Amino acid sequence: MNPLHSPEKINSYFIEQIKDYAIFSMDTEGIITTWNQGIERLKGYKEKEIVGEFYGILFPEAYQQANMPENELNTALKEGVYETENWRRRKDGSYFWAAIILTPIFSDGKHIGFTKVTGDITKQKELQDKLAKRQQSAIENKNKELQKVNLELDSFIYTASHDLMSPITNIEGLMVFLRDELTASDALNEDIEEILQRVIDSMDRFKRTIQDLTDISRMQKGFRESPSDEIINIQDVYDEIVADIAIPAGLKTCTIHTDLQVHQLKFTRKSFRSILFNLISNAIKFQSPKRECIITVSTRLEEPYVLLSIKDNGLGMNEIQQEQLFTMFKRFHDHVEGTGVGLYMVKRIVENSGGKIEVESEEDKGTEFKLYFKAEM
After folding, report:
1. In this predicted model, what pLDDT tens digit does every residue of 110-139 receive, in sequence order?
2. Which domains does the chain have, with CATH numbers?
3. pLDDT of amino acid 212
4. Where are the beta strands (DSSP E) in 34-183?
5. Cβ(316)–Cβ(365) under 8 Å?
């Protein structure tokens, strides 16, 4: 083979003629030993100016002060290669965004130096930054639109609630008047009484649904406007709920066990009371007729959360019911009153505060709700 065309010479010519990338080699200490036209064009240094210099001269001063050149060499030697994208400096002091590959070189198992390939990808970065800026702008505009929609929804709910309550109140008054008139004329029999009572019960459910919708709107507005820094005593809230809760007609009194390992929580008292009241009252409502009703309420620390658990041995749920559990107005049992909004509100309250909720349930064995609140004090 002609020595002028040996693999070593061809490789040297190849590297020398690459102009879009800076390719150079260093010794084991990072001292530059070779240079090519590409790096002269990219960085502005001529070969005689740079060979023999520590390659850290090519870094911004802040990077040099942070020992980034030395850290790169150590990482490349340890990992076998070092790849990154960051700023590099030219001779004239200007900066460019570079794609960098630093590789240690070995001969017969001995480390003899490094080779480095640097490409100028400033244009790509500018395009990426522009795209990211547009995406951020689109997200901000979308958030503004959502905030506007939320405000309009709040306004609609309040207006609708007010407008609906007036005719409902009128209907209730008319039903009472009708009952009195039928009674006075001795025309009120059991069948008519049952019809009247069904209408009144329907009106009550309608009012509760409207109130639930209003509460949801207030809840959302409250979380948007005033995140809570209130510290509550969990035992106090629990005691208050147990004192107030009523057992629906036809259901057994439940035994409630407590194991409160965490006693305080940074949370809005009103919201926490709503959560605990909903879950305990549900455990009572959906008890099994086959066995004694037992409920366990516990708290413990599971960093970074405080875990609140409400476990029962009631009716339980199948997999399909669990998938639909937090859907608004979804109800699985008709033997007790309800609007199907309570669990939806519980989930929203917990998630709006940065927590999460999990459910474990087995049909005819019971259910456990696990609520994770941020452990902040």
Report:
1. 999 999 988 888 877 777 777 778 888 778
2. 3-120 (3.30.450.20), 126-225 (1.10.287), 231-374 (3.30.565.10)
3. 65
4. 82-89, 95-107, 110-120
5. yes
